[in-house]
Amino acid sequence: MARARVHADVNAHLGKSWYDYENFHIDWKDPDRYEIVKRMGGGKYSEVFEGIDMVNNDRCVIKVLKPVAAKKIKREIKVLRNLTGGPNIVELLDVVRDPSARYHSLVMEYVDNVEWRRLFPILTESDVKWYTYQLLVALSHVHAHGIMHRDVKPANVMIDYQKRKLRLIDWGLAEFYHTETDYHIRVGSRYYKAPELLVGYKRYDYSLDMWSVGCMFASMIFRKEHFFRGSDNDDQLLKILRTLGTERFDAYLKTHNIHFETDVDNLLVNYPKQPWSRFVTAENRHLGSVADAVDFLDKLLRYDHQERLTAKEAEAHPYFNSVRLETISTEGDSVSDSGFAST
Predict the structure, then answer these.
(1) Angstrom distance (rounded) from CA 34 to CA 211
(2) Is the model's pTM score more than 0.90?
(3) Domain of 181, in residue numbers
(4) Helix 125-144 with 207-221: angle, nearest 10 deg
(5) Which of 6, 21, 273, 286 matches a 20 to 30 Å C-alpha distance to 75?
(6) Among 252, 230, 249, 247, which residue's Cα sits nearest to residue 239?
(7) Are residues 261 and 278 in the same domain?
């Protein structure tokens, strides 16, 4: 039976009022309270702006949703309402809609984020431990409350480097987990897609997010912007096979009775598993050659989703011993040993 190792029945226990977003009523507010300052970015489903709350003069983020199914909008808001206040989860402040009811916007807390491309090359070992741990704390909370994020990637992890603050954002693809349920496999971003998505396995669970954490962690310790960088989904799987080898991949397919067919010749070749030491260079040796770091990575990047560390297990890994003992508050702290300053 397809069943998550942890939190499999959380939603059943919390009840329909917790997870039923289709019947969720949203009390939309007037948008006049907020003023857009500048565009911050955008994607397939939304445009994101920096804004000002004119009542208290606080900075905020205004996510203007592009026209999509009402069910999808309800799902994102329901997830955010359920999770707001949780550790390292972006806070939903308000939901607004213009008088024509054409434009729906989410107003969220502002994070003075440093772009991943600028950040990951300068992260120290202590930085990598700190921010990875903070991400795990967020996911532990999310998963314990019956929710899969399904799009964990650097662009959805906001880091205020000066304050050592992390926020997990963008819940547009998040979904409530139920056992024996087929889920859409067109989720996530290619470089962070777990193998189950690439082979069409629909009964996945929270462990999907843990693969994505592994990809981010590999990028940080090996100083490689995207650790698996495929040109399409087939090439993405090929990049994974050439690193993790085909022996365990074949065993994974057999264990879960996954019928994977392909006409891509390279995906049918046998590849040996590469030792993680192969990715250690003079530039990243101080980050990626530590035994605990490699062990942690190896326990996340597993084909078999049932073998991956859960978020709570990952938090308890020896790699994070120093972080768990740290008592310095993240508020107002500055990590300046790299000489990097946020702008």
Answers:
(1) 37
(2) yes
(3) 116-325
(4) 170
(5) 6
(6) 230
(7) yes
DSSP, residue by residue, 297-316: HHHHS-SSTTTSPPHHHHHT
Dist CA 88 CA 140 (whole Å): 10
Q: What gap in Å lies between CA 253 and CA 262, rounded to an integer?
A: 13
Does 324 or 148 have the greater pLDDT score? 148
The first and second tokens of residue 144, run together, are 């314990």
Say how far residue 259 (Cα) sits from the centre of its chain.
Answer: 27
* Helix/strand/coil for 318: helix
Q: Taking CA 254 as the corner, what is the angle to CA 248 and CA 258, rounded to the nearest 5 degrees?
A: 110
Last residue of a domain, one of 75, 109, 143: 109
Residue 242's nearest CA partner among 227, 256, 255 is 227
Structure-token pair, residue 235: 């090439």
Please name the residues in contact with 64: beta carbons below 8 A apart, sequence gap of 6 or more.
46, 47, 48, 49, 103, 104, 105
Buried b (16+ CB within 10 A) or exposed e, 249-264: beebbeebeeeeeeee
Place of tokens 């078999």: 304
Do 240 and 320 fall into the same domain? yes
Q: Which of 187, 209, 160, 240 is nearest to 45 (CA)?
A: 187
- H or E stretch covering 288: helix 285-288
Q: What is the pLDDT of residues 289-301, one digit of tens each?
A: 789 999 999 999 9
Measure the CA–CA gap between 64 and 95, rounded to whole angstroms.
Answer: 10
Same domain, 272 and 298: yes
CATH number for the domain that contains residue 38: 3.30.200.20
**Any idea which residues carry the catalytic annotation?**
151
**Which tens digits make up the pLDDT trace of 162-201?**
999 999 999 999 999 999 999 999 999 999 999 999 999 9
Residue 170 near residue 13, CB atoms below 8 Å: no
